[in-house]
Design goal:
The protein is mostly beta strands. It has no helices and 33 strands. The strands form 10 sheets. Strands 2, 3, 4, 6, 10 and 13 form a 6-stranded antiparallel sheet that branches. A hairpin with a 5-residue loop joins strand 16 and strand 17.
Length: 459
Amino acid sequence: MLLVGLMVVRGKAQNLVPNYSFENYTTCNIKGGGINVAYPWYSPVKDSIYNAAYANTCSINSCCIVPNIWSGKGYQYPRSGNGFAAQYFCWSQTGTLVDNRVYLQTRLLKTMQNNNCYLVEFYVSFDNYSRLAVNNISLLVGDTAIWNNSKLYLNGLIPGNPQIQQYGNPIITDTLNWVKVAGIYTAHGGEKYITIGNFKDDAHTDYIYVKTPAIGGPSSYLIDDVRVISLDSMQLKAEAGRDTTIVKGDSVWIGSRLCGLTNVVWYDAANNVIDTGAPGLWVKPTSNTFYVIEQNVCGQYSRDTVFVNVQPLPVTIKNYELKIKNRIQGDGVENVWETASEINVSHFNVQRSEDGVTFETIGTVKAKGAGKYSLTPNPSPLERGVTCYFRLEVVDKNGALSYSEVKELSIENGGLMISPNPAKDFISISGGNIKEVRISDVSGRILMVGRAKKVDVRG
């Protein structure tokens, strides 16, 4: 009898995107624009002076030398390899948006198959030369190449409904890291082109200015590592996020921002359902706990758990108040406070401000453990009609800083004046809004009561 064994080996997941990390090029003597040298990538905008740019470590043109791109005005290393693309997702003109767009497009190595599920992803980094950050960082999957004739569409805008963008479509502002934009796409069959860009007009684009003044300029993002992979060749695992530690009272994002996930359920540590259909969510636990994500995507089932460790506040300040101490003699303002708890606290800085914004340290007291504190910085004089602001800066042993509430103190009227001081036969007492003056001797015996704004006492 002959026994035949059959072993099925799942091969390495194939990326359907050619030149996915922009490593291949026809020339490195690249001038402004130039994505076409990273064949088969190109900008699908006709009759436009703007095209996607190509940057590489081998470039000899000042605009496109990695990492000092744009003649040193920008700075970024590729996520992998030596090259990346750059493109405009929006444009501002003297503080007003205009629908200028630049796109990246290429043809896939293979046509997508009907009812197949694909992981589609690319990485972006906000160009730190740009003043304007936007949302709508998206990818469009299509059957045919899309071209924009600038005579047909305003300023290069290609309208469309992209299938891939970050869950929640946030504004991406990270200039240091490469941020993943990814999603699950179920093909209807025949799709063979992908296009990266902003397919929404300015009325449907959110933006923030990250630099001032809000003058004209592009919203530029760098692009690297574009992938389209069939789930038939890979296992898509649930992603609950990294275990993390927060301070009590803070919130934290768990999960991912992978779009296209619908069959997803989140559970808390008590096995209660806390959300459905979302790849990630914000949580605000008050004690150490964990969360579980359960997903079933295109027949692939998986679960993942994330642990959130909650640390108590390093210090709890209560009963913080200010007391004027012998202001006439310039002894200043006494800061009095009490701590209910202290964890790894090094010292407290008493800080003063005249505008409530810019504070300077005027005194320091070493932490001694939970209890009462008092500090009168010298000098910290108050002038008539001047409002001052005080706060406590808490310095941890690791250098971390936190702050108390801000206290406001002002002397609206003139100060109390007593002259001569000391006195023997005559004293004059004056000051704004004096309702009553009582004079007593050292034994507490009342010598005189006055109800005038100025009281002369003659012996």
